[in-house]
Amino acid sequence: MILRKLVLPLLLATALSACSDQGQQSAGTAQQKPASPVSVVVMKKTDRPITNVLPGRAVAFQTTEIRPRVNGAINEIAFKEGSEVKAGEVLYQIDDDTYAATVAQAQAALQKAQVSIPSAQANLTRYERLVNSGATQIEYENAKVTLLQAEADVEAAKAALNAAQIDLDFTKIRAPFDGVTTISTVSIGNIVTANQTTALTTLRNIDPIYIDLIDSSTNLLELRAAVASGRLHGDPRTADISLMLEDGTKYDRTGKLNMAELAVSETTGTYQIRAIFENPDHIILPGMYVRASVTVGTENGYLIPQRAGTRNARGELSAKFVTADNKVETRTFSTSKSSGNNWLVTDGVNDGDRLIVDGFQWIGDGAAVQPVEATVNDQGFVVEQPKVDEAKP
């Protein structure tokens, strides 16, 4: 019984001692946990392009609705709907029998008027010789008037013939410029009237093509201030413009600024910018929505990839950096600008600072990390730098 009383406390003390040793080992293990690896980019201040991404819509370079200028029945539709046509090419033929007859009548009237001129001229010449020897002054003046009347009749006949010829020419409805046609609204045999409300077809020139962009007046003021202060280098009027199409693909041609409206919408606070692009393959069609990236100039600063930055409730950019003792710290930037797939900042960063671009999602400020140098490619993917084998010469 006495032995039992002595053994029980001894076993309890041994168990407590074992638990204490295990707790100390666990604490030591936690303290020795390796630092989390993170990918970092070493910052360097350089001149970087400043870009604005703007929404836009494609608009035909030239557009016209084709309408008849004379009355008549459609005899021929000479184009294939939706096809390309050249300037001057016949699109529709209106029945021209009546107009051709009118031209013939006008030609006959002109010939009749022209015949009377030689006799009137000869009569005037004769009275000029006889005005002082038998012919009266009144007869001479009458002969002069007769000649003038004959000449006027000829001019009137020429004008009538010209008008008749114009109407005859208008029976052939031609394309005013190179372009692409739409569906025809009439068929052969339909009667059309001059300048009717309904267009026969619409012709669009889409090479080149316009892109109408919308920007805010706030951005315009900031851009002007940056240029005036010298922070932004380059002329926005010569900016290169690239396009992202509706399906996310990048258009393979670069456009140029064509014009900018000198007025701001009273309802939206925006103004319109028009860019022009070559479109030989007709990839861009009128009405398409696009996103345009406008390079307005260059500015000296540091690039923070979009994948490495977040924004707070005030819209300020923040990013995580590695300190000199390999600890995490968050920095917030009051101003930042878009530069391709990056943000550009000018304050709060120094050459050689290490920006965390991957692995920062689950670590907080003050956490110990193991930085691994990397780069961010044009697609926004992190590419770690190859490790150098120090053992090799």
Automatic annotation (TrEMBL):
* Any coiled-coil regions, as ranges: 140-167
- Enumerate the Gene Ontology biological process terms: response to antibiotic
Instruction: Using the record's annotation, list all stretches that form the Multidrug resistance protein MdtA-like barrel-sandwich hybrid domain.
Output: 63-202
The terms under GO molecular function for this entry are: transmembrane transporter activity
Multidrug resistance protein MdtA-like beta-barrel domain spans which residues? 208-298
Question: Is the Ubl conjugation keyword given for this protein?
Answer: no
The UniProt record lists the keyword Transmembrane helix = no
Which GO CC annotations does the UniProt entry carry? cell envelope; plasma membrane
Compartments where found: Cell envelope
Which keywords accompany this UniProt record? Coiled coil, Signal
Signal sequence extent? 1-20
**Main localization, broad class:** other
- Report the SUPFAM superfamilies cross-referenced here: HlyD-like secretion proteins
- Family, as annotated: Belongs to the membrane fusion protein (MFP) (TC 8.A.1) family.
NCBIfam families the UniProt entry points to: RND_mfp (TIGR01730)
State what protein this is by name. Efflux RND transporter periplasmic adaptor subunit
